[in-house]
Recover the amino acids of this structure.
């Protein structure tokens, strides 16, 4: 397939609603989290509410509606690349991909090629949604570079918007497996702790009540090892680094996490021992609820061998 540059012609106007839980947040912080962009980029956006332009440090009142003008991104030279992908499911509306550990989802500074988007451009050409512009065609949600597992990709704008609404309404199910440090005492439970940007390290997230959003992670112990716990985790919300931050908050960071378990033995892992094993959603065209599961990757089974027999 020939190389296919991504294109976009004009700016986009998007309506965004704040919730009561956002009351008191700065507008730029809220938009950076809602649109998954940097705070500096959010500060440059034109935002109008009730016919009045708002400043970047405007404090949200809750249950407000904003009209945000998102400028057309600068042209990119991202190219289609013949990179093998593990396709779990595909039809005319979407794909479910099993992303390998170490693959970045879309091009960004320092990762201009070799990403999932580059592979999708080769595989699908122009048959990808344009909702997220030319930098992230088809991308409905993301996984961290070093988190492996199931990811959904939209082939058209209609499907993209339907799927995005399900994520926002928390009807889009996602389950993960992880191996964490320490012996988790509870057999199951819920972490209900707000997540926001770290005060001093902008590349990290943290549990904080300042400029944060509610985050809910449900956990269930599958096996306990000496000094480690194998857990299943279900996301009710989808904040950046949510599982990694919540497990570290409990004092049980994910094994191999070089950000939130810094200084600990990585046990030969190339990234955190975290895997998105399950995904479920209503098909945007048929309305049928469909679910997919993927087998644990080799880095999980290799780590189990190193940890020995479960207790």
């Amino acid at each position: 397939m020939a190389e296919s540059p991504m294109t976009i012609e004009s700016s986009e106007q998007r309506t965004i609603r704040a919730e009561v839980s956002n009351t008191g947040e700065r507008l730029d912080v809220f938009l950076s989290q809602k649109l998954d962009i940097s705070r500096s980029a959010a500060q440059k956006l034109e935002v109008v509410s009730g016919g009045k332009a708002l400043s970047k440090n405007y404090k949200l009142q809750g249950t407000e509606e904003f009209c945000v003008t998102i400028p057309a991104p600068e042209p990119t030279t991202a190219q289609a690349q013949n990179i093998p992908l593990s396709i779990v499911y595909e039809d005319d509306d979407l794909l479910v991909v099993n992303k390998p550990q170490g693959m970045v989802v879309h091009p960004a500074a320092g990762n201009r090629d070799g990403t999932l988007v580059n592979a999708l451009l080769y595989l699908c050409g122009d048959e990808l949604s344009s909702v997220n512009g030319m930098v992230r065609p088809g991308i409905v949600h993301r996984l961290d570079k070093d988190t492996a597992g199931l990811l959904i990709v939209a082939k058209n704008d209609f499907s993209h918007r339907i799927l995005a609404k399900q994520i926002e309404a928390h009807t889009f199910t996602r389950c993960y497996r992880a191996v964490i440090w320490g012996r988790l005492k509870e057999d199951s439970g819920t972490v209900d702790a707000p997540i926001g940007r770290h005060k001093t390290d902008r590349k990290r997230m943290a549990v904080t009540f300042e400029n944060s959003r509610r985050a809910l992670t449900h956990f269930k112990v599958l096996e306990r090892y000496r000094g480690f716990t194998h857990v299943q985790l279900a996301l009710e919300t989808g904040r950046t680094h949510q599982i990694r931050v919540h497990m570290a908050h409990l004092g049980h960071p994910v094994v191999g996490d070089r950000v939130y378990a810094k200084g600990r033995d990585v046990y030969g892992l190339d990234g955190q021992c975290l895997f998105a094993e399950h995904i479920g959603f209503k098909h945007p065209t048929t309305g049928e609820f469909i679910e997919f599961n993927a087998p644990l990757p080799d880095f999980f089974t290799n780590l189990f061998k190193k940890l020995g027999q479960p207790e």
About this structure: The radius of gyration is 20 Å.
